């Protein structure tokens, strides 16, 4: 009886152990299944997120590409308009130059015509004077022709001499104008250098009390350091503005 009872007890204990092991296995299987489901769900979420990010990146790339294309098209349009403007400017300049050249040619032709008429008038007057002085109407035909030829050579020499004197006077006048322009340029340069020197010597002392217009442009300000330029901007005073009094 004791052995039978012990065997029953051991069988019951083995059954409980086996049942416990089966329960543990079931729980582990359930845990693994739950973990697998959670991982699958996480993978699904990650895949959805990755897909969404990829789509956003794709859309951002497409948007940037569209922006780049628009920027390129705008730049191309600006270049095209600039090229057209430059081409129109070149055409206008060429037309203006042609018109100026035409006017200059017209003026030159008119001037040459006037000079020819003046030379011809002078020629006829001098020929008449020489003929009258030498009384060629009293000479025979051969002597008269020789004298007339002599007169024409003399008149042509006078005309050539007068033309040379006129050209020399004109060249001297042009040279005088150029020299006067150069003197004016040097005078203005000296005045400007003295003005800039005075600015450099006294502007810092008068900062805050300096009327507008003393500094003509940025080139004047470039004579000073960055600190002076920074302090100068807000402290300009217009003494002709009643609000500053």
Mean pLDDT: 79
Beta-strand share of residues:
under 5%
Helix content: over 70%
| Backbone structural class | mainly alpha
The arrangement of helices and strands along the chain is HHHH
User: Could you give a short account of the major beta sheet?
Assistant: none
Extended strand count: 0
Please state the oligomeric state of the protein chains shown: single chain
The 3D shape can be described as: rod-shaped
Q: Which stretches are low in confidence, meaning pLDDT under 50 for 5 or more residues running?
A: 234-245
- N-to-C CA distance: 129 Å
* Total count of helical runs of at least 4 residues: 4
Based on CA atoms alone, the radius of gyration comes out at 54 Å
Explain how this protein is built.
By secondary structure, this protein is mostly helical. The protein has 4 helices and no strands. The radius of gyration is 54 Å and the shape is rod-shaped. The termini are far apart.
Furnish the topology, listing elements before pairings.
Elements: H1 2-134, H2 141-202, H3 218-221, H4 226-232
Helix pairs in contact: 1-2
Key phrases:
single chain; 245 residues; 4 helices; 84% helix; 0% strand
Brief write-up:
This protein is mainly α and 245 residues long.
